[in-house]
Design brief:
The complex is a heterodimer of chains A (155) and B (186).
Chain A lengths: L1 H15 L8 E4 L10 H6 L8 E11 L6 E5 L6 E5 L15 E13 L1 H15 L12 E13 L1
Parallel strand pairs in A: 4-6
Antiparallel strand pairs in A: 1-6, 2-3, 2-5, 3-4, 5-6
Chain B lengths: L6 H31 L8 E2 L3 E4 L8 H11 L8 E6 L2 E6 L2 E6 L4 E5 L2 E2 L3 H8 L6 H21 L8 H23 L1
Antiparallel strand pairs in B: 1-7, 2-6, 3-4, 4-5, 5-6
The chains are: A alpha+beta (155), B alpha+beta (186).
Chain lengths: 155, 186
């Protein structure tokens, strides 16, 4: 009986142990064979890509600290990033992915944000990052371009 | 001598043994269930506690030079694996599992080292079926067993405390919030 109990405990411990972050991890549907579009190209001519499925690649500079429901990729152009947003729980990007390289695929989307929503978003962002909200950061209505992610590969 | 077939006795045995079998995983799912329900308010997997550090302001130059200067100013353990500039004066350094965000003009840096929440991290990993593969089948089998536990539980007792007695009221009381919620929210 003791042996059975010991085996069960061992199996449970093995099953519950979280593996180390593997060399390459696929999220959602992963990525297809389409050619990578430079993030700077997307941001330079956004209206040409809105509604289209695009594949991008870049350094992960931020991850949603609470739910892992978005990550931000650095552009090939300095000071520029793009957000890969996924529905809550469909894919969960881990916080430790920050600083790794990701290839992500999804639909390039334009969002027109009214000023009151901009304030709420910035407030939420500050709250998530644990920093004080700066009302001066709200400069009026904004247009946000982001990728509604269908899959990604992080390495 | 063999005892005659009695479905209630079999029902009790199934309920008892299925109950023992799923006890551990039910606790795992229960703990994780509460934890992930409140994902909007906290990260159920890791503790993120940024630490603010100050240093003498540094000149704004190129990314590599700024990264090296911040490493020296904050006595960080070597150059980062990668780095990024969000603005000319703001640089981010990425190490394995932790990062530093620095404003070189203001001389302020935030060091973020996320720490995994023990037990919860593992529970959420299983509950949200992150491993996929074989775990999907184990979780399916668990779901079937949980269903069997619920159904057999209805027929464990007879009489006043059974399903025909007070049991039916408790079953209805359990269903009531579900039905009401769906009716009112949809």
């Amino acid at each position: 009986m003791r042996r059975v109990a010991a085996s069960l405990v061992t199996i449970a411990a093995l099953a519950a142990s979280t593996p180390a972050f593997p060399a390459e991890t696929k999220y959602g549907a992963g990525v297809g064979k389409a050619q990578v579009v430079k993030i700077s190209e997307l941001m330079a001519r956004p209206d040409a890509y809105v509604g289209k499925t695009v594949k991008v690649e870049g350094l992960i500079t931020a991850v949603c600290p609470r739910r892992g429901c978005w990550m931000e990729l650095a552009s090939d152009k300095e000071f520029q990033t793009i957000q890969i947003k996924v529905d809550d729980g469909v894919m969960v990007f881990p916080l430790e992915a920050k600083g790794k390289v990701a290839t992500a695929e999804g639909v390039f989307t334009r969002i027109d944000v009214p000023v009151e929503r901009v304030e709420a978003m910035k407030r939420h962002e500050a709250e998530e990052k644990g920093v004080p909200f700066d009302p001066k950061s709200v400069k009026g209505p904004e247009v946000i371009y982001r990728i509604q992610g269908t899959g990604a590969v992080i390495r | 001598m063999r005892r005659p077939w009695n479905w209630r006795r079999v029902n009790r045995a199934v309920h008892r043994d299925a109950g023992y079998l799923v006890a551990g995983l039910t606790l795992v799912y229960a703990i994780s269930g509460v934890a992930v329900n409140h994902r909007a308010d906290w990260n159920p997997n890791v503790i993120v506690a940024p630490e603010t550090r100050r240093f003498a302001p540094l000149p704004v130059t190129d990314r590599e030079t700024m990264a090296a200067a911040v490493v020296t100013a904050l006595s960080l353990p070597g150059l980062p694996r990668s780095s990024f500039r969000r603005a000319p004066e703001r640089i981010e350094l990425y190490y394995d599992g932790w990062s530093v965000e620095a404003d070189v003009t203001a001389g302020v840096a935030t060091v973020t080292r996320p720490r995994e929440r023990p037990v919860l991290r593992e529970s959420n990993y299983l509950h949200l079926n992150e491993p996929k593969g074989a775990w999907t089948w184990i979780a399916d089998a668990y779901g079937v067993l949980l269903g069997a536990l619920a159904v057999t539980g209805l027929f464990v007792l007879r009489g006043h405390n059974g399903l025909a007695g007070r049991g039916k009221w408790w079953v209805m009381a359990g269903l009531l919030p579900v039905v009401l919620f769906l009716l009112l929210r949809r």
